[in-house]
Every structure is written in structure tokens, then in C-alpha cells.
Amino acid sequence: MPQDTALSLVEIYTDGACDPNPGPGGWGAVLVSGPHTREISGAEPRTTNNRMELTAAIEALRLLKRPCQVVIHTDSEYLQRGITEWLPNWQRRGWRLSSGGRVENQDLWQALLAAQAGHEVTWRWVRGHAGHPLNERADRLATEARRGCGGRSAPLRDDPREPAPPRSEAGASGGDLPRLALYSRGCALGAPGPSGYAAMLVPEGDPSNARSVSGWWPLATNNVMDLWAVIAGLRVLEHRTRVHVYSPSRYVVEGATRWLANWERRHWRTEKGAPVKNRELWEELSHVMGDHDVAWHVLDDANNPHSLQAAGIARQEAESARQEAAGKGGAEA
Questions:
Q1: In this structure, are residues 68 and 7 in contact, taking their beta carbons and an 8 Å threshold?
Q2: Contacts of 79 by beta carbon, 8 Å cutoff, 6+ apart
Q3: Residues of the chain whose pLDDT is less than 70?
Q4: Using CA atoms, how far apart are residues 185 and 163, in angstroms rounded to an integer?
Q5: Does the CA dihedral 238-239-245-249 come out positive or negative?
Q6: Whole-model pTM above 0.85?
Q7: Are both 121 and 217 inside the same structural domain?
Q8: CA of 324: how far to CAs of 91, 99, 167, 177, 191, in Å?
Q9: 3-class SS letters over the chain
């Protein structure tokens, strides 16, 4: 009988930071595989920015325990072009540049080659500070690690276009937590079918600074998308926050407030002993809630503008999923 040899897809977002350069440095990476997310970071007291970019990718790849299909997102052209364009020539010349000089960071380039061996790796350059939440999260992990190692305390937001984290006046002085409302919506064009999700993050007292998080899955149900919309919204929060979650899904709200703790105590079994449906998503929700102070609300207001906006975005994402599936079907035909 033929075996399924499909590789698991892992998306990795990496970043490195060093200030001054050379000087104290940090690196960070966010790994995403299906409903699972893992963050890692580290620092060195004396290094360079390029070495931190390389180290982030190496350490992320070393976490993978079996061959995977990997997409690595980096805002470092040095890393992306080095591994995809320059490295074969360096090896052919015995780790020498075309000018005859030695290749810098040879030890890390060799470690990166070893770390990616056995995986199918695609390297993608992304523009830094352009608003991608997981790229920004990797940047913050690297910056926080660098600071812990004695680097300069530069502002976290280097790009004024990036909205600041929601913050109350009391929170700024160490009192109350920053507060925001999270409006989540999911949309499945079938049961299951092409699906989309969206979450609107609305800072308390500053609705003009609202931002959205959204995406699509090729095949899912409404329950899965309603749940994933909350997860996606919570996991982009950089700081401990007081969050009011508004969802029209009683499955999500009652699951989070009534069932989740009992499921965990019963080792992910229902009261009748059956396996919990969507266990991986509920585990991820438990993880991303972390230290946040979360209050849950079933949203019955069909005309809430933020919920309507999230619903519209989720529907657009689901349509994108359907178009993607139709395109693949046409190509295969």
C-alpha cells in the first residue's frame, strides 16, 4: 500500500538585531505549523546583525524533528540572497569571495546548510516594518533579547506607520493593563469548505487605531474559523493586555468559559469520554491566552460595526480560498 509522503508545512519568521553593530545582539523566530505556534529567541554579548540573522534561521530549523516543507520569511537580503544566490559560488571557490577575500560568517553558513538538510526549504524576503504581524513579532523577540543582553534601549517602533500597542494612561505608569476589544468572525463556504477568518483589534478609547488580522484556510468549518479568528487576534499581542473578546459563536465563548478547563483536567476528553473535537485549536487558544486578562462575550448585536467589518474581511478571505482552490483545479486539469 503506498504511504503518504506529504511533508508537514512549517512557516518560519526570523529576525536579528544588534545595536551598536557590532555589539550586543539578539535573534528571534516564530514557527507556525497548522494550529501550532512556537516562539524562540536568544542573545550574544558581542556579535553583528548579520550573525544574528543567520542564527535565528539556524536555531529555528534545528527545532524541526522530522523532514518538513519549510518557508522561511526574513527581512535580511544578506541571509536570503546568501543562501539562494551566493553560497554555491562561495563553496566552489573554497569559501572565498570573487575578490579573493574570505567569506564572513563561514561557520554560520555551514551550520545553516546542515540545519536545512533534509527539509524542502523556500526562502522569502519580506520588507521589514511593513505591518506583517509575525515578522513584527520576530523583530520584537530579537529586540527584547538584545536589550536583555545589554543593548541600547531604542524604541520598539522604528516605523511611525506602525500603530502603537493599545495603552491606557494608568497602564503607562505601571497600573492597569492596556485594554482592547477583539471582534472575531469566521466564514466557511461549505461544511467544510474554503474558509476565512478575521479579528478586529480595537484599543479602548482609540477606535481610529483599530487593526485587523485575517487569513484563509483551504478547507475548514465555521466552528474552526470562529475559534481560529480569536487565536489569530490574541497571538499578535506583544504585551499583557486586558482583552474583551466578542464573538457571535456560542461554541467559542462557552468552550472558553465553561468547557476548556474541564477538558484539560480530563486529558482532552468530554464528560462522556469522547475525544474533544478541534483539540489542537483549543490547546492553542489556551496557549495564546497566556497571561492576558480575557473576558468573553457572546455578541448578539448584528449591527456592531467592528463585527460587521470582521465578517466582511472573513468572507473576502474565504472567497480568496475558493479562488485559490479553483485555480489549482484548473491547473491540474
A1: yes
A2: 14, 50, 53, 54, 57, 123
A3: 1-5, 128-131, 150-176, 291, 328-333
A4: 22
A5: positive
A6: no
A7: no
A8: 39, 46, 39, 41, 18
A9: CCCCCCCEEEEEEEEEEECCCCEEEEEEEEEEECCEEEEEEEEEEEECHHHHHHHHHHHHHHCCCCCEEEEEEECCHHHHHHHHHHHHHHHHCCCECCCCCECCCHHHHHHHHHHHCCCEEEEEECCCCCCCHHHHHHHHHHHHHHHHCCCCCCCCCCCCCCCCCCCCHHHHCCCCCCEEEEEEEEEECCCCEEEEEEEEEEECCCHHHCEEEEEEEEEECHHHHHHHHHHHHHCCCCCCCEEEEEECCHHHHHHHHHHHHHHHHCCCECCCCCECCCHHHHHHHHHHHCCCEEEEEECCCCCCHHHHHHHHHHHHHHHHHHHHHHHHHHHHC
Q: Does 317 lie in the same domain as 180?
A: yes
Q: Which residues contact 110 (CB under 8 A, 6 or more apart)?
A: none
Residues 40 and 104 in one domain: yes
pLDDT of res. 19: 80
Q: State the amino acid at position 8 in one-letter form.
A: S
Instruction: Tell me the CATH number at 60.
Output: 3.30.420.10
Residue 254 lies in a domain: yes
Domain that holds residue 218: 169-332
From residue 169, give the alpha-carbon distance in Å to each of 204, 205, 296.
11, 11, 24
Give residue-wise pLDDT tens across range 137-172: 898 899 999 888 765 433 322 222 233 333 232 233
Here the cell at position 252 is 467559542
Active site residue ranges: 15-16, 53, 75, 129, 139
Rounded to whole angstroms, how far apart are CA atoms 21 and 44? 12
Q: What are the grid coordinates assigned to 106, written together?
A: 563561514
